[in-house]
């Protein structure tokens, strides 16, 4: 296996990690904004 192929596979895994982190951050942002708007529901 060449070094280039290994590097490409690592980049794909990093991209997946970044997407998961972005989705988590977005979910937390939506939740916190909802709590700020309507705190009595939580």
Automatic annotation (TrEMBL):
Q: Which NCBIfam families does this entry report, sorted A to Z?
A: potass_kdpF (TIGR02115)
Cite a GO CC annotation: plasma membrane
**Taxonomic lineage of this organism?**
Bacteria, Pseudomonadati, Pseudomonadota, Alphaproteobacteria, Sphingomonadales
Offer an example of a GO molecular function term for this protein. Answer: P-type potassium transmembrane transporter activity
At the top level, the lineage of the source is Bacteria
Q: Which species does this protein come from? A: Sphingomonas metalli
**Coiled-coil blocks:** none
- Bilayer-crossing regions: 18-37
Is Glycoprotein set as a keyword in this record? no
Q: Pfam families of this UniProt entry?
A: Potass_KdpF
Annotated protein name in UniProt: K(+)-transporting ATPase subunit F
